[in-house]
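Retro notes
What went well: the complex prediction finally ran end to end.
Inputs used:
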Amino acid sequence: MQCSISKLKAFTEDKGFRDDFRRAKRNAKRQFCDWLRWSTGHTVDPESIFDCQVKRIHEYKRQFLNALRIVVLYNRLRQSPGLDMYPRTFFFAGKAAPAYRLAKVIIKFINNLAATIDGDPAVRGRLKVVFLPDYCVSLAEHLIPASDISNQISTAGYEASGTSNMKFMMNGALTIGTRDGATIEMAAEAGEENFSLFGLTAEQVIGSRGWYNPRWHYENDPETRQALDLIFSDYFSCDERGVFEPLRDMLLKQGDHYMHLADLKSYLTADAQLNALYANSDEWTRRAILNVAGSGKFSSDRTIAEYAAEIWHVQPCPIPETTQK
Ligand SMILES: *Cc1c(COP(=O)(O)O)cnc(C)c1O
């Protein structure tokens, strides 16, 4: 199927268009910063990379894997202050079901991580985490156009489709994600070379259920161990000792069902490659344009037409011109 938006592909080689595209993203980031300051009091740097994960809080969506990535980056910066790393702002938003206690602990962890990083002058201006409360469509409308990076990192095999992945794609963000749900089709439309895919496939997740041992990663990967040791030494919870024990239990006692530790290393590798690319703004913009150009397949018109034909078996019922007025 040929969508009109795919005509944008031809414009990747047009310098004037790339400049305009970048300007539009910069303006969206500035507008978001103004709105954020007005609505929450948070001040963030619009020149930093905006790296987002917004969706319901659930273990399978793995917000905690994202948080572990940030703890590893934080450790790297603390250990090597001279590290070459573009300033980054991480945004989380999402609600958890009222009785889902572990999801609430994950929200608390992200908030504590944000506060600790804010209080550490060693990483000021280089790393910032913001948890935006009360996620809703209005918030999404502000944040998604301002995003540079979209995190779609569910355990492969668990996300039926996802729709925020598409919203980010058509608003010019690059996706870092697992081969799960519609993210697989999105990468096929934009070209896999314009996507940052990492981690176990759904087949590998199923295939390793019998022998997967999260402790192996704790014992054999130094960065994983340092990150977990920091969290469970109450570094992020010095006034609330033990508050993150349920996360330790989930990972190391109950077997890490959603395989956070299996994918952390490949997530960090993909993350380093993608963030290094940001310095090459022409190549970054080229990829972002190809993502927007490839997003036409995910229009609701196509989706509903397909559902009508293949699932509901219903015919269109055109409304006559006269009754429309
Ligand atoms: C798109 C959207 C979702 C769904 O996000 P997924 O990442 O597909 O789970 C949930 N809540 C809001 C407010 C949205 O706009």
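What we learned: The radius of gyration is 21 Å.
What to try next: split runs per interface for comparison.
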